[in-house]
Amino acid sequence: MNFFRRKKQRQQNFQQVTAPWRERLYNVALRQTRTSARAEDWVQETLMRAWQDFDDLTDHQAVYAWLLKILDHVIADDIRKEARRQQLAPVISTEEIFLQEQQSSCQGPFEQLLQQQTDQQLIQAIQSLPEDFGKVILLRDIEGLSYQALSRILDVPEGTIMSRLSRGRRLLSKHLNRSESQVSFPQTKKDRKGRL
Q1: How far apart are CA 17 and CA 3, in angstroms?
Q2: Does residue 190 surpass a pLDDT of 80?
């Protein structure tokens, strides 16, 4: 009886601690893939791993950072498995490999450029970046995490985080500027006649 009571109490504690963060975890996962099913799978796997390691969680103030770190490992594992599967049996994939970095915390031309984009344009642009850059941009500029939190989650020094963020933002700016310049505007009658 004591065992069952403890188990139920553990389940209630886990639900209470993780429930407020599930939607944000899903949004982070969704920004790294084009399918909601895959994002949901990643979140479920994250929560299963979190449940297994729940007794190791000592700082209940840092639950979101802890869950993000687990999610990052889940995504990296899944991408590695997918890469191995494709090496063994190449398949045409409709998904692009993962995101990269983004904007700085100070208001400037980069931030203005981001604000001009739709959510979908921004997500696609982030997904077009190399993985390491996309993650840092997503977690810093979209999720608002500190350099220190990012360092813990991604297991890299803060200097590396800053470097990736800087480079990722430059890549993202180039991509967004290139996309904007490729937008074609409808021709007027005069334009069409002048070209005939």
Answers
A1: 21
A2: no
Architecture in CATH of 2-88: Orthogonal Bundle (1.10)
- Is residue 131 scored above 70 in pLDDT? yes
CA-CA distance, 22 to 43, in Å (whole number)?
8
Per-residue burial over 19-43, b = 16 or more CB atoms within 10 Å of its CB, e = otherwise: eebeeebbebbbbbbeeeebbeebb
User: Six-digit token pair at 101?
Assistant: 């970095």
For residue 4, what are its two tokens? 């069952």
The CA distance from 42 to 180, in Å, is 32
Q: What is the CATH number of domain 109-181?
A: 1.10.10.10
Give the amino acid at 83. Answer: A
Residue type, 61: Q
First vs last Cα of the chain: how many Å apart?
Answer: 88
- Four-residue CA torsion sign, 33, 38, 40, 41: negative
